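@channel sequence for tomorrow's demo:
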Amino acid sequence: MADKAIALYEKMQKLNFSHNTLTYNNLMMLYLKLGNAEKAPSLLQEMKAENISPDTFTYCLMMKSYATLNDIDSVERVVKEIEGMLKVP
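structure tokens (generated this afternoon):
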């Protein structure tokens, strides 16, 4: 089923279907469940390149991904990014 989900996502890209946060979050969750946490950061970069704003769940998935990869520096970077978003001007 994972192969079908990834194939569907790739087909959506080729057809220029609109992506949103939910699409990326679901794909990140799939990669985490499959033990492919290293694929989540590239999805976050793709989201940002398409001007799709990550939500709270996206950041939670990213922290889990980095923690799975034992990349604590990146977990801390995500926390700082969230803190920066929460600061009131």
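heads up for whoever presents: The chain has a mean pLDDT of 89.
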